[in-house]
Write a structure and sequence with these properties.
mainly beta; single chain; elongated; about 190 residues; 1 helix; about 10% helix
Length: about 190
């Protein structure tokens, strides 16, 4: 208990003394108990133990529970219960239970749970659920949803309001299908 108290006090002291706009290493317990301020940028490494928040991030992000960027993210993300990026970026990610990316985001995601995004380009592979307002690339997941899909969806259930590409799966729905809106195994858009 004494060690935990000393560690917590040390983190509070470092946090309150940290006014840098950019930090090269970030370790956060629960924001604002972290090395850099929640408004600081991280250029290097971030370890988010419970909840860590920063503005922009470039580098390696190891998330145990919750990591949030109010700006952009460019780099590699590992795991996490919840990842949020408010202003897009270029993300390579392994794992992550729920991933919520707003803004224009280029992704390569492997083995993640639920992926949500506004404007996504890239590859989302072996996911439970993929959702995007606009997706350009390939979604491979159990369930794939896109309002505007340009590319390929592979899954048990695929949905696209506007499909410019192909769907392969058990049930495929494309509102603008060149064949029929709902088809088993394969569908294509106009």
């Amino acid at each position: 208990m004494k060690k935990l108290l000393i560690t917590t006090c040390a983190l509070l002291a470092v946090t309150s003394a940290s006014f840098a706009e950019t930090v090269t290493a970030e370790v956060g317990l629960v924001s604002p108990i972290q090395i850099g301020a929640p408004t600081a940028d991280v250029d290097g490494f971030r370890l988010s133990i419970l909840y860590t928040e920063n503005k922009n991030m470039k580098g390696f992000d190891w998330n145990w529970f919750i990591a949030k960027n109010t700006g952009s993210f460019n780099g590699f993300k590992l795991g996490g219960l919840y990842n949020q990026v408010d202003k897009g970026g270029n993300i390579i990610q392994l794992g992550g239970f729920v991933n919520n990316y707003d803004g224009k985001t280029h992704v390569t995601q492997v083995f993640s749970g639920i992926n949500m995004g506004e404007n996504i380009e890239g590859l989302r592979l072996f996911s439970a659920v993929n959702y995007a307002d606009k997706m350009k690339g390939t979604d491979v997941g159990a369930i794939n949803f896109a309002n505007n899909m340009e590319g390929l969806q592979i899954g048990i259930f695929n949905y696209a309001a506007n499909l410019n590409g192909y769907q392969i799966g058990l049930i495929n729905y494309a509102k603008n299908s060149s064949i029929f809106p709902v088809l088993p195994f394969f569908n294509t858009g106009k």
